[in-house]
User: What shape does this take?
Amino acid sequence: MTDHSKDLERVFSRRAFIPFVTCGDPDIETTERMVRAMAEAGADLIELGIPFSDPIAEGPVIQGADVRALSSGVTTDDIFDMAERVRADLDVPMLVMTYINPVFVYGSERFMDRCRRAGICAIIVPDMPYEQKQDLQPYCTEYGIRLISMIAPTSEDRISMIASEAEGFLYIVSSMGVTGVRTSFSSNLEDMVSAVRRSTDIPCAVGFGISTPEQARHMTDFADGAIVGSAIVRIVAEHGRDSVPYVADYVRRMREELDRE
Amino acid sequence: MAGDGGRYGEYGGQYVPETLMNAVIELDEAYHRYIRDPEFLRELDDLNHRYTGRPSMLYYADRMTRDLEGAKVYLKREDLNHTGAHKINNVIGQCLLAKRMGKTRVIAETGAGQHGVATATLAAYLGLECEVFMGEHDVERQALNVYRMELLGAKVHPVSSGTGVLKDAVNETLREWTNRVSDTHYVIGTVMGPAPFPEMVCEFQSVIGREVRKQIMEAEGRLPDCLVACVGGGSNAIGLFHEFIGDEGVRMVGCEAGGKGVDTERHAATMTKGSTGIFHGMKSLFCQNEYGQIAPVYSISAGLDYPGIGPEHAYLKAMDRAEYVAVTDDQAVDAFEYLSRTEGIIPAIESAHAIAYARELAPTMSKDDIIVVNLSGRGDKDVAAIARYRGRDIHD
Assistant: This one.
């Protein structure tokens, strides 16, 4: 078995573009084609969303995707199987994003073991804050899965505590509220990243609300990567099974803007 | 009392997005400071008395007792509180706390509408801005309470996401809290959510049990043999039980929503059918599938229609200190009508679940035994729905 725990080290060697996809929306076959297409179009790291019935950190766009995915009957096992197929012949780093309950009920150790076997290098759990991370950290460490920490606009005095123990990269939440396309971001975003840099030298990726190549470019002027979720999920919502070329084109345009001299 | 990190054994905890962490920490500190502050406690007691009408009566249900030919049945009359249910006990505490913390806006979820009405009421009284999130299905079945909240100056947001009931209203209120947290307090309506909510709501509701202890000692000179209360999230039950946890001879029974039957897909029987999970800020028991997807639940009662339960209840069950039984829609509606006819008291359909179990239990006990049932709310809000259940087309 290949060791993927070092996958994240190469992600941030350039301005990183990190697309998110809700797995199983509209079905797992479409997701698999999309992940392959995103990798070929220049995604540096792909965030695989495991849908949850009650995604409290998501806005209406990703909530809708979760509903469609779960109605398609997709399960956590189907998603791991898909990731494993992709990883067998494509060298693209992948992480999973899901809520604590699907991990806990699957069995935290079994979940991390399955991540490792599927070639997944990290996990993001938005409803598991720093204080509860010991629920997962021992299993993540044992199976070589990076547990990604989040920093929010309200984190303030918590930043150094979180950042100094963080691994992989830090997920900088761009704004208050839930996921969804935005036109403006928290005014102290650059200060947040500076505060993080004082405690750690691991990379920072900004997420929540980014949709345009210009926004992604701007974020990577001071951070190391841009995460895009809702803007992609919106394309999938519109085009369904035919969305792969549209998403690939979107990722290419992002890549071009980030690579521009 | 909750242990470190708001734990009850393995249950409880604080599972919220990072955006909310400083808010729950600030709340935790404020709660533990003010709950020992004599001035705060004096204001709380004063409002409980002057505004709610506490202490609520412990009423000896003479006709029900004679009819059942078993244990003596007492009803704790939370239905006589201002706004018609136990919900206001918690809301007074939380809104006074929100004021002390300098918050100017409160948000709340509501199922049947009782918690929403109580929150809107205190917001009006204390001059706080108020927004209530309510599943669209509940907006329909509790139309009168929606208008009541609006009359009190609150803005009601129907929630169409998910299954459009209480669980979805909690999701949406949590989302709104992450959106605007600095001036806003989330008044959670039951003993659920991240710490310190389960402990704090328990404390504000425990006025029920403390009064019962005093009242039953005055009336009978001894403690009751059994306490019975309905459980959705579990706040009225904890409010009654908590005071008696150390009294080993006092049995405690929580009655959850069995809906169409626990062997059907249409119930909200978390204790009977649920398993351990982590959701809505806490580790507890939930109705869910093998992949941790929360199950859609159902009950005739909008207030019990919740797929989880407060962590202290999960702990009391694990410790075998409290028992939990499922009561079906049919049994609850029968009890709703029974108490109306027998005692001239129309109970909330939620509380009717507890009455239903007491009807079964009392005849199995001796005439010297004592049962205290928490009559957590009054049934005015349910009359039209029960009429429809019986085939009479009456609308609010």
Notes: Residues 244-259 of chain A form the longest helix (16 residues). The longest strand of chain A covers residues 16-22.
